[in-house]
């Protein structure tokens, strides 16, 4: 079954969303590479949740308003989004850049949220352990460095992207630059407010993450002491793709849908 | 036609095999390769070369700004400009240019330029640029805001020069409760502003606007590109309802003169290939960080993947495409004259030292250019002006 693709107007910003399933709402916030495809993880989760996958403002087919200049702006946008869609009891899941957004949403207001799953999130800094500089990576490195299992990278690199996909990739890259170039991939003000997060929280990391080293998981644990931390072996920066079954079962467990 | 003696001040004592180990000599080649004794010699010689420009009859001697690269040793070009002012009397001093978006306080640029203008009693020509892509990596400034910061810094600087202070500046990127810079510029209303660029239609239109009429200089481009951009400037000017003068149209190119074409090619070959194949190259990610160019032009550029330093080039390629001017005095005269006749350009920005070109050959080429190329090109300008 194909998910329902819909344009939504949130306070004048048109964004694209994919949605499928019934039950507890699950809002998935994508990383820097966007969310143009319906992933196996979404399919699996849609058996138990109402899975909503928006493209952030500035990404994919969504509008790119000038006034959105930072990750905190995107977080405020998603508070509008949650309100307008009248969502509550939401399982919030974010990966990488989207994990950063999810944390920024949660520190601002958790009233509509039931749980928080952060998958290799950006957003905080560990001094002395810089994240990799994706802005220096060439096209091939940008794929290879994200996966432990290079067979996935090989498969992705063997597909020649269409003109449309290339344009979307470029747009995503422009927006990621706008949001994360300086300071590189973090908000100096986020860490001091992470204690505001009181909802059940988990942090999932790939042991072989070449973009944001797994050492960052400890930083999140330090600031959200009740969070559980899982480091998945033989996994890179995208556990939701590389180990999607493990990520799915961890989401089920956190939200009380243990199977 | 006016002549500008322009310098990049490259660091020549590089191990080019070692340099090949890095993605680029920009940003990533370790500065442990810089030897201060050699570097001090470079500065001394290069400043002497520029100073000799006054005696040789150049209208302007000029420097530029680059960061974290052996391609150019002038992260602070105003320091060199200040030295040049003290050692010359009449020649104009060009700073082409300062990279406005890369600073967090553009008023520092307004202040320094105003100082240089006073120190030289009005001999300063300023240049406003956005900086090269790699410099957004080194400065940390977000390339997504490059255009916005450029225009706003420009407005702030011009206001600081022309409005009586104190006044408040309220912008998107820059905010100041007090703008009241001392000194004010020596030239009124302010020193000339030139815009050196590799050409974007947006920058060209902005420069040609009648409120500004800033001289535009196409840098390091093929002769087709130079013609196109200068034509675009003239078209924009006529859309604005005026005819662009030759003073508004400039071209910057490496130039080498020797007594015969063969000898000129022989002597310029390695140094020029070093410039284009060793000093300039950088990967796409450094050349065009996202946002540095608009989405539309980035897509266009990505299709052709041409641009400075993207492909290896031989001297013959460079000559054939017209990116460089190399030959006997007659060849060089004819090339510049034909570009002038084709484009209406009035400012020739001459890069006589390039890449690893030695002091001796640089000086000989400059002397020959001054004695055997400049005079007739000047005379023709006068003749054509008289005929009008």
Topology of this structure?
The complex is a heterodimer of chains A (259) and B (388).
Chain A: E1 4-10, E2 13-20, E3 24-29, H1 40-45, E4 49-54, H2 71-84, E5 90-95, H3 97-108, E6 113-119, H4 139-144, H5 150-158, H6 163-180, E7 201-206, H7 216-223, E8 228-232, H8 239-242, H9 244-254
Parallel strand pairs in A: 3-4, 3-5, 5-6, 6-7, 7-8
Antiparallel strand pairs in A: 1-2, 2-4
Helix pairs in contact in A: 2-3
Chain B: E1 2-6, H1 16-19, H2 36-55, E2 60-63, H3 77-87, E3 92-99, H4 106-119, E4 124-129, H5 134-139, H6 146-162, E5 167-170, E6 175-179, E7 193-197, H7 201-208, E8 216-219, H8 223-239, E9 249-257, H9 261-279, H10 284-287, H11 295-304, H12 315-321, E10 325-327, H13 329-343, E11 347-351, H14 359-372, H15 374-387
Parallel strand pairs in B: 1-2, 1-11, 2-3, 3-4, 4-7, 7-8, 8-9, 9-10, 9-11
Antiparallel strand pairs in B: 5-6
Helix pairs in contact in B: 2-14, 3-4, 4-6, 7-8
